[in-house]
Amino acid sequence: MSRIGKKPIPLPAGVQVTWAEPTFTVTGPLGTLSRTLPGRVEIAVGDQEIRLSPQDNHRLSRSYWGLVRTLVDNMVTGVSQGFSRVLEVVGTGYKVELRGQTLVFALGYSNPVEFPLPPGITAKVEKANRVELKGADKEQLGQVAANIRGLRPPNVYKGKGVRYAGEVVRRKVGKAGGR
Question: In CATH terms, is domain 83-164 a member of 1.10.10.60?
Fold first, then answer.
């Protein structure tokens, strides 16, 4: 039995759910999210909550049960509260600024790096070294944050680069300190 799948998903006020198999659509104050869900899971939409159960006792049905519950819960949370990721730019002369819907990074390359934000993702630059990304779609937000981090991943010798807030970078000792 799936411990995650058993938990009902509470529906906050102002969130409407439409289930036309196989497409699940959630509409709320922060937008609309739609997703094609895998079969083998029955979804019962009530007034206050959503309950999920497997269609049969097959192993694949039980494995999809927890997955679908998590996907639906992320959609409901996304349109009601939203998700956010914070990135830090660490390094001498490294900075970021927001120009319209484009983030412009100075990361030690000869030219500044421009990163256009996809629709549905907003950014707020705090100081010149912190970026807060917000969006309703958790999967898209995580991918955008990973793409930004990939512009200059943290260096293990000096610690410079783009990292998630709270990320611990394990530093290596240079060649002179290894004796």
Answer: no
